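Narrative progress, year one. The postdoctoral researcher (J.K.) led the effort to move from monomer predictions toward full complexes, under supervision of the PI. The following entry was the first complex the group processed end to end, covering 494 residues in total.
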Amino acid sequence: MDFHADVIVVGTGNAGFCAAHAAAERGARVLMLEKGSEGTIGGNTYFTAGAIRTTYQDIEDLADVIDDPDERLPYTDIDPYSPADFAADMRRVTLGRCDPTLTDAMVHGVADTVRWMRGHGVRFRLQYERQAYEMENRFRFWGGLPLATVDGGKGLVAQHLAAAERAGVRVRCDTAVDRVLRDPDGRVVGVAAGTTEFRAGAVVLAAGGFQASRMMRAQYLGPNWDLAKVRGTPHNTGGVLTAALRAGAQSAGHWSGCHAVAWDAKAPESGDLELTNRLTKQSYPLSIVVNTAGRRFLDEGAEIRNYTYAKYGAEILRQPGALAFQIFDAKTAPLLREAEYEAPGVSRFQADSIAELAEQAGIDAAGLTATVEEYNAATRPGPFNPAVKDGLGTTGLTLPKSNWAQPLDQPPYLAFAVTCGITFTFGGVKIDTSGRVIDEADEVIPGLFAAGEMAGGLFFHNYPGGSGLAAGSVFGRRAGAEAAALASTGVLTS
Ligand SMILES: Cc1cc2nc3c(=O)[nH]c(=O)nc-3n(C[C@H](O)[C@H](O)[C@H](O)COP(=O)(O)OP(=O)(O)OC[C@H]3O[C@@H](n4cnc5c(N)ncnc54)[C@H](O)[C@@H]3O)c2cc1C
C-alpha cells in the first residue's frame, strides 16, 4: 500500500466520508484510515437512525431531496424550520453555550450540504414512523427532524462507501492512529499508527469522541459513567482526540457532558451491529418513567422528545442500579415506535394490574402503586395530541408531567426496562468554521482539520436530535475541501 496521499482522513464515519468526498471532488488523492476492521466501517454513523436536522421553508424543499416522492406527502403537515429556528434550538438546549460562529455555520450550511450529499449518492426519506403521528388521516411531523437517510445509518454508510469507491478514495482498515506528525516548522505532515507512518499534505481527523473508553468516561464525565452502556462503536475511545491534544490542539466544548439516552437494560456493552438503534426507547413522553422504587424522577413531557432525550440518559444513570422503567397502558401502546419497542429480546413486561406489573419487572410494588395513584389523580381531562406540546399537564405534583399526561388506567399495562446508553461525548478539539484545528495560542495548526464528534464547541448539556449528522456533514465537507486546497496549493481557500 502507498502510505502517501494529498489528504488523509482518520475515521470512516459520516464526518470522515463527507471530508473524503469533498477532498476527492477537488482532485485530491484521499486515503482514509480506520481503526476497525472492514466489517465495522462507519463507526457510530452505522448505528444511527440516519436522522439529520436540516432547514427547509416548506415541504417542497424536502420533496426535492427525498428519494421517491412518498404517497403520503399530500397528506403530510410539516412546519417550516429555518436556520433561525435551528439556531434558537441550539441556544435553548445548550443553555446559551453553543459556539455562535460554529452554530451559525452549521445552521446556514446544512440544507446545502444535504443537497450536496444527495449529489454524492446519499439517499433521503421522510421518517414517518419516528417523527410523525397520524391524526385524522393526516401525518403531522413535530420537532424539526423529518429527514433521515434511506435504511438509516447502515444505508448511509453503504452509500458513503460506494461514493468513496467511485471517487477512487482508498480505505485502510485495522489502522489505529495514535500520533499526529508535525514537521520542524509545525506543519502537520501526516499521522502514525504504531510504527507505521502515513504522509499527506493535510490531515482531517474524524475519529469520534471518547465515549467507548470506560476510563475516560469516569475521568471526564464523572462517577458511574464507566457503568453506562455504549450505544455505538467500541472504537471511539478518544485515542485520536488525545493525539490531537498532544500535538498542540486546544480543547473545546463540554468535556464533562455527553449525549446519553434511555437504552434497553439488557443491551450489550457496546453497539449491536444487527439491531443498531432499535435498542433505544424513545416513546417515553407517552409514559411515566420510574426507578426501581417506583418513583418518578423526570418530567417525561417537559418538551418535544427531540429536545429532552439526549439528556435523560444521565438522569437514568443517577437512579439506583442505573435502572428505570417506562410504563404505558393500552391507550398509548399503539403509539409506541414499533422498531424500538418490538425489537427482538426487548426488556418488556406486561400485566393486567400495576402491582402485578411491578412484581414482574422488579419494581417496588407499593411504591409504583402509590406513584400511579398519585399521578392519575393529578391528570385532568382535555384533548391529547402527541404531535404537538398539547399542554395536557398534571396539576399539583411536585414533579409535573407537563404535556401528554393521560391517566394510566387501561390494562394491559406495559413496562420497559431501560438503562443509560451513551451516544457520544461533547468534549473535543477547537476548530474554526473551515474545520481547521486551533492551538493553545489560538492559532491555526497548519495542515490539521477536524470534524464530527471530535470537534468541540457545539453541544453542551443537551442536544437537538439529528444535529450530530448535521454538524459532521457540514464541517466534514468544509474540512475536506480546505484540506484538498491546502494540499494542492499550500494555501487555504478561506
Ligand atoms: C445508536 C446511535 C444512534 C444515533 N442516531 C443519530 C441520528 O439519527 N442522527 C444524528 O445526527 N446522530 C445520531 N447519532 C450520533 C452520531 O454519533 C453522530 O451523529 C455521527 O454519526 C458521528 O459521526 P462521526 O463521523 O463524527 O463519528 P463516527 O461515525 O463514530 O466515526 C468515527 C470513526 O473513527 C474511527 N476511529 C476511532 N478511533 C480511531 C483511531 N485511533 N484511528 C483510526 N480510526 C479511528 C472509528 O472506528 C469510527 O469509524 C447516533 C449515535 C448512535 C450510537
